[in-house]
Design goal:
Length: 246
């Protein structure tokens, strides 16, 4: 066995742990798919006077997957906007970025925060880099996003999963564009069942949590705490800056 193969080999105990994490992860995904059938609507989160937040979930996901974070932020006064037009988020990244900007325009939003998961982070970065010349999107918190692609994508049987290959033209071009990275916070766990290479993004603020899983990270209290620290810390800095200008 070569040195590379030895490094890539997974010990039996580690494989068992990863299997258990994957089971919990998919159980979380199944639960929130069922929750999407409940009575809660996107309009329930639109009230608030603090920074507006647009939620962009991942592929095959509805906005309900993001509800644990949405509820925490809405409770603190943030109006939350859901891009219902994305449906289960199967469209190409550039087209989806157009849909996000349509929400910004339609609602007359400014100084927007994007809160995204997985593919949503790619859509958000594309919107920031290519669809927002006036910087109405101020920043983005991306959770478990495949900024460098996923090694699993080459095995995907359908187009809307193969686009997560690192060599995909849109993803590869987006990876080379670093101007927006300083306005992005990438939050991810120690092991992601869908993105084994992780979600570290050069030039961004990277927050690695002691969590495991691709979906269940959204409901983890440590993720909620990290997102609140990022958003409320930036809010405090903005208020200080405005006070200094006065």
């Amino acid at each position: 066995m070569s040195e590379t193969e030895r490094r890539a080999a997974i010990r039996p105990g580690e494989a068992i742990k990863r299997g258990a994490w994957a089971i919990r992860d998919w159980a979380y995904a199944a639960r929130w798919q069922l929750q999407s059938l409940g009575p809660t609507t996107a309009d329930d989160y639109r009230s608030g006077i603090r920074q507006p937040i647009i939620v962009v979930p991942g592929v095959y996901e509805t906005w309900h997957f993001m509800r644990p974070l949405m509820e925490a932020l809405h409770d603190r006064g943030h109006p939350i906007y859901v891009v219902t037009e994305l449906g289960h988020n199967l469209h190409d990244v550039p087209d989806s970025a157009d849909v996000v900007m349509d929400v910004v325009e339609r609602e007359g939003l400014d100084k927007v925060l994007l809160l995204t998961h997985s593919k949503g982070g790619l859509i958000g970065k594309y919107a920031m880099a290519h669809r927002d010349p006036h910087r109405r999107i101020e920043r983005m918190v991306a959770i478990a996003s495949p900024f460098a692609g996923s090694s699993y994508a080459r095995f995907a049987p359908v187009h809307h999963l193969r686009v997560f290959r690192a060599a995909d033209p849109v993803l590869a071009a987006l990876a080379r564009e670093a101007d927006a990275n300083s306005r992005i916070t990438s939050v991810y766990g120690e092991f992601d069942t869908m993105i084994p290479g992780g979600s570290e993004l050069a030039g961004a603020t990277n927050v690695k949590l002691p969590t495991h899983g691709h979906f269940s990270i959204l409901g983890d209290p440590r993720t909620r705490a990290a997102v609140l620290r990022v958003i409320e810390g930036a809010d405090a800095a903005a208020r200080d800056a405005e006070g200094g200008l006065g």
